[in-house]
Amino acid sequence: MLMPRIYEGSKFGLSIEIFPPKTEQGDELLYKALDRLRAYRPGFVSCTYGAGGTTSKRTVEICRNIQEQMRLTATAHFTCVGSTRQELVDWLTYARENGIQNIMALRGDPPQGQTSFQAVEGGLRNANELVTLIRSTFPDTGIGVAGYPERHPESPDADSDLRYLKAKVDAGADAVFTQLFYVNEHFLRFRDRCAAAGLTVPVVPGIMPITEFARMKRITSLCGSEFPGSLASRLEAVQTDAEAQFEIGVEHAIQQCQELRAEGVPGIHFYVLNKSQACERILESLGFQPEAAEFQLA
Ligand SMILES: Cc1cc2nc3c(=O)[nH]c(=O)nc-3n(C[C@H](O)[C@H](O)[C@H](O)COP(=O)(O)OP(=O)(O)OC[C@H]3O[C@@H](n4cnc5c(N)ncnc54)[C@H](O)[C@@H]3O)c2cc1C
Predict the structure, then answer these.
(1) What is the number of other CB atoms lying within 10 angstroms of the CB of residue 231?
(2) Which atom of ligand 1 is closest in space to residue 110's alpha carbon?
(3) Tens of pLDDT along 47-91?
(4) 258-273 pLDDT, tens digit each
(5) Which of 27, 47, 60, 245 maximizes the CB count within 10 A of its CB?
(6) E strand or H helix that includes residue 217
């Protein structure tokens, strides 16, 4: 299914983001998790593209498996890092040959050791240029782009960040998927600012349930998302109890998602870290019922 159709009318678009595992055991766990999550009929499952293009073919391979074996729509993430325009077109052609119709178009982070993003000679500088390239190469692609409720770390201010987000949408993006956040007010303000700037595409909140406190601290410090003090204190108090951390994290995510749904968001993009349990709990709290029987793995 093409990305825009997922949010058509009053449909609530559920999407799941995963990453390419590094081991066979990781593969097994991923497909088990997806087998459980597909019972909730996600609009699509997206697979990340490793920093520096390290998983370029693997991302496509996983997306193809998701579509062919699991009968789910896949979205392949794709970045400009380290590739010339011709290499980007070659990858897009490869993805298309493998049945991928939806792309999450990203600039990508600077490679390790570099402080700012430098396009390679003959490459692209920003995600809006990638959106333009995709639209001109395969016009019928569903295109998602990244949005930052708490501002992209390199942005001097929120206004220029929003201006560049609008450039991505004007270049042909179909939907915006946000960076993870733990304080809904940031998203709601961002959504209002997007509307005021004339963005009419779906702006989909990104939610990552906290299931391991230490890991979350690392992730939020990398992406700059505010971590509420009250939540941090509750988690800190149970640092040696993995189960309690999981419960607190899920409870917080449920609260976030219920509030966001009441605010009329078009869908939720879940960063599931290749696991299903937290997401299943959240979906059930939102009233999603699994439809397992129809979905046995081939
Ligand atoms: C939903 C989601 C999925 C992601 N998936 C991946 C992934 O799979 N792999 C991966 O490596 N990373 C991924 N990322 C991270 C992303 O690559 C980084 O956040 C990266 O630093 C910025 O990418 P972008 O597409 O937002 O870039 P851009 O939209 O190009 O923005 C990057 C910075 O440049 C500024 N900018 C944009 N356009 C211009 C312009 N024309 N002139 C001047 N400045 C400009 C922006 O304000 C911003 O500060 C993801 C992020 C999100 C939110």
Answers:
(1) 18
(2) 21
(3) 999 987 777 899 999 999 999 999 999 999 999 999 999 999 999
(4) 999 999 999 999 999 9
(5) 47
(6) helix 213-223
